[in-house]
Amino acid sequence: MNNRIFRSINELAGSSRVLDFIMVTLSKRTRYVYLFVLLFLLFRANFNKRKALNAGVTISVTYLLSMLMKRIFYRPRPFLKQAVHLLPPVPSRKDSSYPSKHTALAFAVSAFVFVYHRTWGLGLWLLSLLVGISRIWMGQHYPSDIVGSAILGNLTAFVVKFTEKYWRPFLERTLRLYTHFRTFSGKIQD
To answer: What is the structure's pLDDT at 93?
Structure first.
């Protein structure tokens, strides 16, 4: 079933220059939309340090889990195993197909935004779905990679939010200690 869904989406690649352009743009440029929305929401009223910290932790944990999972659950990318309609840019590394880092991070940011602003979060979630489809369209990932990545991103964002009371004090102390150390070392050099 995974292969059948992959083929039904990927065989459309190359059939329309406009759709190919849209899919490549979704895959490669959508991160700027997420960044803009995050910055807008964080700076909209006043800079909210707590939200910024949650966003940073959500993105960092999702990225680290994604990289760890790529090493543990190696699966060759579709274009390495079979003939596919492959759209550039082709990954320079032949890393694991699972999970899709693009998709995991997109869903993590969407879920983070959803916690604070439901309308924007739903809009980003739909955009994340398109990002996932674009990764299949381009021949980079299987549908199961996208589903697993969506679960990873959403789950990470919600776990970070709901465990905030446990990790936040430690992280804030660490940041204060780091700031104090930098200030202290700066005074010694002067």
So the answer is: 64
Radius of gyration of the chain (CA): 19
Task: Check if the beta carbon of residue 155 is closer than 8 Å to that of residue 112.
Answer: no
Find, among 69, 62, 71, the residue nearest to 104 by Cα: 62
pLDDT at 44 over 80: no
Task: Return d(Cα 44, Cα 34) in angstroms, integer.
Answer: 15
Cis peptide bond upstream of 76, omega within 30 = no
Alpha-carbon distance of 153 to 138, in angstroms, equals 21
Task: Report the 10 Å Cβ neighbour count for 76.
Answer: 13
Domain ranges of the chain: 2-182
Domain spanning 2-182: which CATH class is it, in words? mainly alpha
Lowest mean pLDDT among 74-78, 84-88, 120-124, 143-147: 84-88
Percent of the chain topping pLDDT 90: 56
**Residue 3 contacts by C-beta under 8 Å, 6 or more apart in sequence?**
142
Q: Is 103 helix (H, G, I), strand (E, B) or coil?
A: helix
**CB-CB contact of 96 with 74 (8 Å):** yes
